[in-house]
Every structure is written in structure tokens, then in C-alpha cells.
Amino acid sequence: MERRFRLVLSCPDRVGIVSMVSNFISSHGGSIADANQHSDPTSGYFFMRVEIKAETLPFSLDALREAFAPIANSFAMEWEIQDSNRPKRVVLMASRESHCLADLLYRYHSDELFCEIPCVISNHDKLRSMVEWHGIPYFHVPVDPQNKQAHFDQVEQLILQHDADLVVLARYMQILPAGMCEHFPHRIINIHHSFLPSFAGARPYHQAHERGVKLIGATCHYVTEDLDAGPIIDQDVTRISHRDHPEEMVRLGRDVEKQVLARGLRWHLEDRVLVHGNKTIVFA
Amino acid sequence: MERRFRLVLSCPDRVGIVSMVSNFISSHGGSIADANQHSDPTSGYFFMRVEIKAETLPFSLDALREAFAPIANSFAMEWEIQDSNRPKRVVLMASRESHCLADLLYRYHSDELFCEIPCVISNHDKLRSMVEWHGIPYFHVPVDPQNKQAHFDQVEQLILQHDADLVVLARYMQILPAGMCEHFPHRIINIHHSFLPSFAGARPYHQAHERGVKLIGATCHYVTEDLDAGPIIDQDVTRISHRDHPEEMVRLGRDVEKQVLARGLRWHLEDRVLVHGNKTIVFA
Amino acid sequence: MERRFRLVLSCPDRVGIVSMVSNFISSHGGSIADANQHSDPTSGYFFMRVEIKAETLPFSLDALREAFAPIANSFAMEWEIQDSNRPKRVVLMASRESHCLADLLYRYHSDELFCEIPCVISNHDKLRSMVEWHGIPYFHVPVDPQNKQAHFDQVEQLILQHDADLVVLARYMQILPAGMCEHFPHRIINIHHSFLPSFAGARPYHQAHERGVKLIGATCHYVTEDLDAGPIIDQDVTRISHRDHPEEMVRLGRDVEKQVLARGLRWHLEDRVLVHGNKTIVFA
Amino acid sequence: MERRFRLVLSCPDRVGIVSMVSNFISSHGGSIADANQHSDPTSGYFFMRVEIKAETLPFSLDALREAFAPIANSFAMEWEIQDSNRPKRVVLMASRESHCLADLLYRYHSDELFCEIPCVISNHDKLRSMVEWHGIPYFHVPVDPQNKQAHFDQVEQLILQHDADLVVLARYMQILPAGMCEHFPHRIINIHHSFLPSFAGARPYHQAHERGVKLIGATCHYVTEDLDAGPIIDQDVTRISHRDHPEEMVRLGRDVEKQVLARGLRWHLEDRVLVHGNKTIVFA
């Protein structure tokens, strides 16, 4: 994969942003491989993502950041520049259900997801063999229902030790404490097995069956303090019928969950997801 | 279209129902053109729909009903037999938005929906010309916000006068009073412009925009006393992005609404929808 | 709708295009409302579409074109600038099937499609009343199977007389002569009732039934000399089953045809479709 | 899973088939858990699938077959009765691409697909470790381009030795010789990475890119002598855009291939697919 610098920014909208950014790039001979922008008339904000062919710029990543900072400051941008050659470090968390974990491991193994997976953490020991076959360390951190905090302390420790850029809850069935959500803002991705905001919380397929819906879905979102209410990255649905009891819904839903989570994770890894308030801009 | 008798039934499940029904049909020389059945292990109920080629039976519709009644009674069936050649009488109701109404009128006009439309009722006079071009009477029944009941009394009167088998709320934006819902059980179909149970009530596209969902939808359901909570007949969704403000969501949603309503209505007209509790069995 | 100038361009890719274009705009105080770009590594071409808020520029449309021309020339661009306030003139053509025509007329009538429809041309007289209800002139130009050229001469005459920017074949079932295709390059849009390249030519639903496919589709494309082989603008599909005989496939397919044609037309009207060779870039 | 006998039959349509079959079942106290039927007016054929709760019948599988045979003969049925508790034996074949194989192995491993996999055969040694982790023997049978028949002889030998009910070509990139196709009629399932009949043969994603289609797809079908022309079991598509070069199409297509193959295989394993001529009836 050709190396690229990915500039992602948001700022209050005004005349001249694109011009200033593209001038900066072209004045240094930079070749733009891909670019997306979005003006939101409601919030008055402007969002942009530019991929620059790294070899066409006379900068290291750090030098590029330094050179761009004055422009960023003059427009009051929130911004970052990422190197497409540097894989993000992603800690996966799971419980007993293996479908999302197995799917992500396969995509990682087959080079479809560009990242490093320093470890998998689970509150059960069930999926160890599958994980270790991929050459990835597996940490079993049990949950004591009387003292869940001990579990989360240990989990947070592991995340920090492994220097994670991102945590993915691949059907990890515990509710994270508020503190942990705050420590990793927009750095924890969850897959919820319903089309949110319908059927938040426990046993969404049973809720869906109870209500008699004709489609079931899955939602990939950033985790915030509010359960299943964080910024949505992607969603999808699949059709069911009166024949499908909760067990079949669980089976059919798995394929949607896997795809939605893999897609959302991929977009995050490629720096395509910008968060603004409780919404996302996805430059897919 | 070849004339058919449609037998639709539900009853507690037990051995021998299909055998008894199919024996009854074949013993009179009846040829089955289509048949569907469903056993619900949760409720212990059995559901069936059979289309019999009318010409192969030596019965009129009434005689067929009479002949079948003893079997129905012995299995404690809820049942009906419909004649595919008899169009149902469907009263359409609308407000100012024309897309669902225009779509249904077109499908009716082009013989895609087999029914009669004795009249259209609206609380505005805006769509009169479109309706009358189709040769259908248009009744403008204004709503006095101080006395809505007068409006509903007049509407109910019109429905009864026109001998309606079914009422379709094609984006009719008033909430029906409980009494009216009870008078026409499973005989009023509504299209709600969200993927229920998300975003029930007013301005669902604005609610969806607020939440930042990535798909919007529509739901066709029978009207009950509980707002937007009746048995769901069909649902569908379409993808949106961060670019789509509520106005674009309204536009994109229209196509979903039209299709979901038309499909749900068609299934009802063909006696394919069975209601059990708050759910539907759709033999599509 | 806020007035916008839409700049659409393509040229050989090289460093500095975005910078030059955005500088030009911002140096005149122009505010960019929307922008898309695409670099195709295979062809080495660059494609761009920019919407500028017209009120922020000190130019009339003509003056803007004049001011931009030197930049365009220096990059060897194919380009155009359109005024979002100027509706394109679209001549619709149909035969006996009304679904696509009725759908486009409704969208036009309800201001969903921003265009003018100076007339409808058909080789049958069947749809006159529907068209005239919309206040649009209807020209019945019969086809003599022994002398089709006379028909096409008359059609071409009408198109020119009505100063059409675009011709839409809304299930017009005649094959256009090569000469006519050449006269209106990328200015004739057709809807074909299959998922091209499968089932080109006559009776695609019957071909699909014969082959036993599980999805049927529709394709909206620009018309070229080669039958059903022009640049594809949009496609979509719907699921069918073994129950669906060609008649049901025709019915189910209609909804796909309508949507795909309306979407493709809308994109064309909004100057979102760029043609390169036999492919399209759609900045949707 | 509750044990069931699955009766699947087809025969020329006439009055009394359902009655005779259901009488047979109910007269022995059999409880029908699921039933589907289809009359094809074009061919004049009738198709039926019935699931009977095994415990409600006083028969072993063999005794049931014997008891039913006279009825089957009197209607000239093609028929079979399968025991839901007996897993089919499925030999998987692959080349170098692992996505379909890994997906099927995962579904097998997680009990989503009820079958036995006695072995995997490949013309490369690349996927051995993945297969053996699942406890499944792996046979590497290289292909000599000068003498392909030796390869196929060995493959056929392995299939017979392992007593396969079914062979699944999970992106096995060799064209089977006609003789082998004939030896296993409707017992070899292939996944082709296009929406057939478009883009049969080699490099379908490149063909699709060349044509500029807006959706790509996959097709699961029974293998016959005619390349990519056998009876279609299932198909699906996914949307692409001008941004997607063949490499991205390959990536996006993988998810469709996996799902279509898994769904088609599942239906086959559950005896839901009936072949008639070059088409399938799928009682899904």
C-alpha cells in the first residue's frame, strides 16, 4: 500500500479553508490522492479529510504536523495527521459469543484490516485457543459480580500496558463503568445487536421478537457513559419473518453484526470517522 | 385473473388440521393453487392460508362457507373464506402530503392493486384535483382543533356510508380517537415514517436526524388505540449519510413509505396478513 | 433553494488542481457549499465537482465562466459551470407502459425533480390524458414498422423545437437509430429493465425467468449506438423467488425501474454525473 | 434440535396430492412442524416439502420410506425422506483464497451449519494449518497443468473414499471435467463471484470494473457441465462506486460470496432446495 498522510480536521466554517489547505499541500508539491469535505449548515461546522501521497511531500510526519499547525491554529481547527503506514493498536474484548471476534481475527489474519492486535481480553476463558492460533496473547479476566470494579481496573491496566489506540467490544457483554468511558473518548467501539435507538439494553433480539418487527439490525457506535447512546458509526438490517423465533434471529443477526462492526472498525482505522457532538461524519 | 377462494384460518395447533382441510378440498375435487402454513411453538397456534381454484369446486362462496363451517368448529378455528374476484372497498385518507396517496392511486389506476376506492377523505382540500382525475369522489372534512370529535364523527360516517372493508391512512396526520380504532379492528392501515419502535410520534425524521442514525425507515401497521404501536405488517429502510439533513431525509423516506405501504396494502387485499396478538403472520 | 454555481471538470491528474480551483474561488470570496473529487489511477484522470454559493461571488454565470476559462485551459480541462436556478429542459418519451412516466411526472409535479418538461412524445396515444392533466403538451408520433425513420425524424424535430437539454426514455420501447444517438451524446437517458449486462435486448424479465435468477434489476444508462451498452448511471435489484412468474417479475421490477430512473435523472439534473469513456463518475 | 423427518417431493400436479400426503401423516399420528408447497403452472409440476416431528410417528426412517413408497408411486413422485438428525457429509474444496473456506469452517465449528466435514481438498498447501486447527484432515492434491486429469482422478477418489453427500467448491479455481459433474448431479455446489449470468468465467470483478456496473454480486449454484450455468440456489449483490477499483471490489465481494455460499449450503443441508430442469425451488 502506497504510504499516505491523512489529514483530518473540523472547524467553524468560513471562506478559504479548502484553499488554504490545498495551497499548503500543493505549495510543497504534495499530491492529493483522495479528499472529502462536508459543511453542516445546522452547526456551522466544516469537516475535511485529505489523503496526501507521502512520497510527494518533503516532510516527515512530525515535520508535516509542525508545518501545518499554524494554519490549523488560524482556523481554530481540531485536527490530526496520521500515517497510513503506522498500524493502530487495537485491543479486542469479548465474552462467550465468538462470531464477531472470529470475524475480526480472520480479517486481521488475511490483511483485510490494517492494524495490530496486541491482545484479546475476555471475562471467560472459552475463546483462548482460537485467539492463540492467530499468535495473539489472550487475557482471561473474570468478573466477580460482587466486585466488578476489580475486573475493570485490571482491564484498564491491560489496555494501557498494551498501548492501545482503540478498544473494540466484540460482543463483550459487560457495561463499562463511566470512568473507563471517559478515559478513552471515541476510542472504544461497541457493536450492539439491534437497530438503535430501538431495543437498547439487554436481549435486543427478544425485545424485537416481542414487538413483531420485520427487520432486525445491528449498530456500531462509540461508547459513552450513556448505555447504547453514543455516536453511531454504522448500522444495517436484515429481513426476518414470522417464522423466525429469537434463536433464528440471533443466527441471522450475527451476520449483520459482523459486517457492521468490521465496516465501522475499518473506517475508524482509516481515519474516516469524525465525531461532532453525538453524531459522526463518515467519509467512506 | 383466475377466480380463487381464499381460506384463511388460525386455531390451536394439533395433529390432523392440514389433513382435514386438504381432504375437505380434494374430496370435492378442489384444486389447490397455493398454500402456506405456520406453527408457532411459543403460542401453540397454527395458521394457514389456502387458495383453491374456484372453478374446481361445486360450491358458491356461501355454500363453501357453509360446508366448511363444521370442520372449522371442530378445530375451534378463527377463519374466513374470501372470493378473489370480489374487490375490497378501500377508503383512503390523506392530509397535505401527496406521495403515498398519489402512489396508491396510480397502482389502483394501473390495475396493480385489486380493490375499489369509493372515496378519498382529507382534512385539507389540496389533493382534490388529483383524486378526481381518477374518477374518485373527494370529501374535504376540515378539523377544528377545538373540536376534533366533530371531524372524526363525520369521517366515521363517510366510512360507513361507503361500506368500507378497509381504511388506509396514506399520511393522514391526525391521531384517531380510541373509539374509532375499536370500531374497525385490523381494518385501518397506517404508514408511519420511521422504523418503529424507534421514533414513534411526531416528526420522526427530525428525531432520526437528532439521533444520528445511518438508516431511515417506514412501517406499515394496523392502527390500534396505542399510537404507532399496532401489529406491524411491513417495514423497510434506506441508507442516509451525514450529508442528509431532515429535508433530504423526508425526500428519501418518501420512496420507502410508498413502497412499504403499497406492499402492506397489497398483502392485506390478498388476504395474506393474519393478526395474532400484536403480531402479524404474513404469507407473502 | 439557495442559488449555486456548479463547476464540474475533468482533466489529466497532476499536482495543484484543487489548489488552483479553490484559490480561484476563495480569492473572489466564494463560499464552497459542497465539493467532491476523484483521482482514477488507472486512467490518470482527475474529476471534480464544486458547488459555490452564487451570492458570495461577484460574477454573473457568464462572467464566472469567462474568469475561470484560463485556469481550465491551463489544465486542459473538460468543464462546465451550471446555474442551479436554471432548470434543465427534459423531453420525456414513452410507449404504452405508464409506470416510469407517471412516476417522473409525479416527482416533477411535487417539485422533487427540478426541471422543465416542455413535452412528452409517445408512439402511442394512450397516456395523453395523464400527461395533459399535468399541463404538459403530448405528441403522439406513431411508428410505421415499414418506415421507422419517418418517426425518428419527427421525434428529433420535436426535441430540437423544444430546446431539450436532455431526453429521457421512460420505457420508450423503440431502438433509436445510430444517428440520433450521436446527435445527443450523453443527453439521452434510458431505463433498461434488467441488471445489465445481463439480459440486454428484448423481454429481459422473460430471459431472467428462463435463467432462474434470484434477483431482478434495472439499469439507468446513457444511450449510445450500442444497444443497452452505454455508460451506466445507476442500477438496483429486488429479490424474487420460484413463485414469481414473469408477470410478477414485471410488477416487482416496475418499482425498481422507477426508483433507478428517478435517481439517475436527479443526479444528471444536479450535474452529478461525469462520463469518462464508457463509465460514469457519480458524485452522489 | 428436535428430530424431524423431511419429506421432499415433486410430481406432475393434480388434485389430491396434499390431501394424500397429509392423510398419510396424520393417520399415523404424525405432527407436521413445517410445510411448503409450490405449483408451477408453466411446467405443470408440483413441489412439496414437509417436516414431520419424528417422535410422533411410529416409524424408523426406513420403515417410513417403505410405508410412503406406494403413495409416491401412485403420483409418480421423485421423492426422498431425510432424517434431520443425520448430518450430511460435506467435502470442501479450496485453492489459495481463504475467505469462503474460513467462513464455512467457522460456521461449522460454531454449530451454525449442521454437517460433517470429513476432509478439505486443495490444489495448494496454503490453508492446511487453518483447516487442521478445526480437526479436519487436509489433502493437498496439486494440479499439473499438463495433466489435469490426474488431479481430478485423485480428487474424485478422495470424495468417494470420504463418502461425501456433497462437495462444496469454496473458491476452488479449477474447472471440473464434465465426467465429474455427471458423477455428482446436484451434489456439487459452487460459489461464483459475480451476479450470473453476467461475468461468467475468469476474473469477474475485472470484467465488472471494465463494464462500469454499480453493483457487484455473487452466485451460489449447482455445478453442471456448462461453466457457471447450473441451477442457481442463491444470489446477492453489494453497491460499489467509481472509487472502487478491482482490488476493492474483490474485498467487498468477499462478504457477499461468503454469505451467499453459506446461505445456499445451509438450505441444501436442510433439504430446502429442489431442482427442476435448470432452476431451483427454494423452500427457505
This entry's quaternary arrangement is homotetramer
Domain count of chain A, please report it.
Answer: 2
State Rg of chain A.
Answer: 20 Å
Ends distance of chain A: 18 Å
- Profile the largest sheet of chain A: 8 strands, mixed
Spell out the key features of this protein.
homotetramer, 284 residues, alpha/beta, Alpha-Beta Plaits, Rossmann fold, 2 domains, eight-stranded mixed sheet
Structural description of this entry:
Chain A is an alpha/beta fold. The first copy, chain A, folds into 2 domains: 4-83, ACT domain (Alpha-Beta Plaits); 88-282, Rossmann fold (3-Layer(aba) Sandwich), CATH 3.40.50. Chain A is 33% helix and 29% strand. The first copy, chain A, contains 8 helices and 14 strands. Chain A has helices at residues 17-27, 61-74, 99-109, 128-133, 148-161, 178-183, 204-211, 246-269, and strands spanning 4-12, 32-40, 45-53, 78-83, 88-94, 115-116, 120-122, 138-140, 166-169, 188-192, 215-222, 232-239, 273-276, 279-282. In chain A, strands 5, 6, 7, 8, 9, 10, 11 and 12 form an 8-stranded mixed beta sheet that branches. In chain A, helix 3 packs parallel to helix 8 (246-269). Chain A is globular, with a radius of gyration of 20 Å. The two termini of chain A are 18 Å apart. The mean pLDDT of chain A is 96. Chains in contact: A-B, A-C, A-D, B-C, B-D, C-D. Chain C binds chain D through residues 38, 40-42, 195-199, 211-215, 217, 231-237, 241-243, 245, 278-282, and chain D through 38, 40-42, 195-199, 211-215, 217, 231-237, 241-243, 245, 278-282, 284.
